[in-house]
Write the structure tokens for this entry.
Amino acid sequence: MAVLPLPWLVALALLGPPRPETAPAVAEPGGASDDPTGASSGGAAESVRHGIEIRWRAPSGCPGEPELRTRLAELLGADARTQGVRIDGTVTTAPGGFALSLRTQTDSGTSEHRLSSPDCHALADGAALIAAVAADPLAVDRSLAAPPPEVEPPPPDEVVVTVSPPPRDPPRRRGRLRLARFALRADGVLAANVLPKLGFGPIVSAGMIGPYWRAELSAIYLAPRPAFVDATKTQGASIDAWTVRGRGCGVPVWRVLEFPLCLGLEGGQMSARPLGQSGQTGRDARGFGLFSVGGAIGVSPRPFVAFFAGVDAIVALARPRFVVDAVQVHRPKPAGVRATVGLELRVP
């Protein structure tokens, strides 16, 4: 006795227990048939072939009796035992799709099934499978277990590989572009221990920059700051300063970041103008000089622009002394600190 695979045991279970009836509802050849939908695939069809009698009604656009018989032939094969098998199926439209009412009659009895699906082609496939299992489940098992026909693989694409001879001189690794560029930068500066109070002002610099170096010439101005000889502020002076700076820098670079490390010399003037009830008149200007060392951090998001922030330590080389009515009103400290923030434009 052959043992059916699990899928066909499930399919046979779906068929349900046969319901005894006296006679199947099958129309005689040439007789009229009813179509509840008012439409059919080629009308109500009845045919007998290989011992299977089929009565099939379906709306227009759904598989007809020829398609159902073709599917049955695929499932049963040529050696199926199908004598005395009758199939009566009706497909109607229903909310959300289609409904199938199917009756199958074999020598062992009659069974009825009702299926629904949004696709009437799926209902036709289901009807063919139920009918084939009812007719000869072993034939269906053999047809589904048969291996698919072998399909010859397409010919592979032809690939021609040409090996180039190795170059005599391997290409050099391209490094950073070694080309000097011109730069113009404007900074704001804060300086401590240079003027009587915290000094501030602008710095304008022009220079040349290379891959890892820069040289520049700058003009620095510190705005006037007041200084008095007494708490009543009756006598004093307004102190300002300007210098010209030349400096050179080494510039380590990492991606878009630059880290200038600089040394510079500055020379210029510091001047005082009397304030209050001072007996002095006129401006007193004296030489002034600095030595600076410091560093900065810059970011260059585009080749033509960069932003910098830096800090310098400054050492006074010349410390002018300013006196009002024989009282010293200001003299720069020996050392100080200076902070800058600026924007630089570069060409080319």
User: Anything to note?
Assistant: The two ends are 93 Å apart (CA to CA). Residues 6-145 form one domain. The longest strand covers residues 284-302. Confidence is low (pLDDT under 50) at residues 1-49.
